[in-house]
Design goal:
Its cofactor is Mg(2+). It holds the Pfam family polyprenyl_synt. This is (2E,6E)-farnesyl diphosphate synthase. The structure is a single chain. The mean pLDDT is 89. This protein folds into two domains: 140 residues, Farnesyl Diphosphate Synthase, CATH 1.10.600; 173 residues, Orthogonal Bundle (Farnesyl Diphosphate Synthase), CATH 1.10.600. A hairpin with a 2-residue loop joins strand 1 and strand 2. Strands 1-2 form a two-stranded antiparallel sheet. Helix 1 crosses helix 4 and helix 9 packs parallel to helix 13. The chain contains 13 helices and two strands, in the order ααααββααααααααα. By secondary structure, it is mostly helical.
């Protein structure tokens, strides 16, 4: 995926550099819990997870949680707990995604599996996944924990389901646009909506969870399309390489390639752009209906990306 660096100023109004530095310390501490860092037998999973977290990233999900927590008057500690839990989940998914996709680099440096091997990378991803639940267990409003844990599991399960569908598509099959959207929503939308949903649930606004998910899912589709438009040639080349090796013609999960395979679309790039713009407007619309101005961050993100996609050649 392309960088989300342009979103940094969008999410800066309620998120300070000090809180982000605290977030980094919190995540590293949680990942290292129970590890003695014995010089004779250091835990490679901890080292690999720490290496990955240290590679940077825009921390968009953490920023969304901190923004929502501030809007909803959660304590700074509780907002940080939600932010760290969501960010650990997301980073676990990235480590596992790189294994599945055989991507050798992430954030400008060797990906975890490429540096440490598949086995350690799997363990590092599992460690961050488990650490996210440990992090959430520290949420101060104890009575809310059963609901928060259930919600987090539901979104993780959705992301896993989407990944499985993408990985196990039958050979010689071409996705439909609806199937493409479902995969994008499951793989990206679930963990993107989670920060806002957790904050809303913690603050007693469970009635707004549906709107938060609609906004995040629409944004996820729009962003995936924006990303696909940057990667058409790369995905086409990767797809050709896979087909030559496996004697299959399964298309890469790129909307432009999907539209190219359908004779009904004479200008697949333009059609993809149109679909992406529509979903980003839907995300902006849904976000405005969220309580306590929680949706401001998602709305601004959606409109900023809408403008970038609109002027894209």
């Amino acid at each position: 995926m392309q960088t989300l660096s342009y979103l940094r100023p969008v999410l800066a109004s309620r998120v300070t550099s000090q809180s982000l530095a605290e977030l980094e310390r919190e995540m590293l501490a949680i990942v290292s819990t129970g590890d003695a860092f014995d010089s004779l037998a250091p835990c490679q999973a901890v080292a690999a997870a720490s290496y990955h977290l240290g590679s940077g990233g825009q921390r968009v999900r953490a920023r969304l949680a901190l923004h929502a927590g501030s809007c909803l008057s959660l304590t700074a500690k509780d907002a940080m707990t939600l932010a760290a839990a969501c960010e650990l989940l997301h980073n676990a998914s990235l480590v596992h995604d790189d294994i599945h996709d055989r991507d050798t680099h992430r954030r400008g440096q060797p990906s975890v599996w490429y540096k440490f091997g598949d086995e350690i990378a799997i363990c590092a991803g599992d460690l961050m996944l488990s650490a996210s639940y440990l992090c959430l267990s520290q949420f101060g409003r104890v009575a809310k924990l059963p609901e928060l844990f259930a919600l987090m599991h539901a979104r993780v399960a959705s992301a896993v389901r989407g990944q499985c569908v993408d990985l196990k598509r039958p050979r010689r099959s071409v996705l439909s646009i609806d199937e493409y959207k479902k995969i994008a929503v499951a793989k990206s939308g679930a963990l993107l909506s989670l920060p806002t949903e957790l904050a809303l649930l913690a603050a007693g606004h469970s009635h707004a969870l549906g709107l938060a998910r609609q906004a995040a899912e629409s944004f996820a589709i729009g962003y995936q399309i924006y990303d696909d438009l940057q990667d058409v040639e790369k995905d086409a080349a990767r797809n050709l390489q896979k087909n030559e090796k496996s004697n299959s013609n399964t298309s890469a999960c790129n909307i432009v390639l999907i539209l190219q395979a359908d004779s009904a679309y004479s200008r697949p790039r333009d059609e993809a752009k149109k679909i992406g713009l529509q979903h980003l407007l839907q995300a902006a619309s849904s976000s405005t209906k969220l309580p306590a101005r929680v949706g401001e961050a998602i709305h601004t993100m959606a409109m900023a990306l809408h403008e970038k996609l609109r002027i894209q050649e």
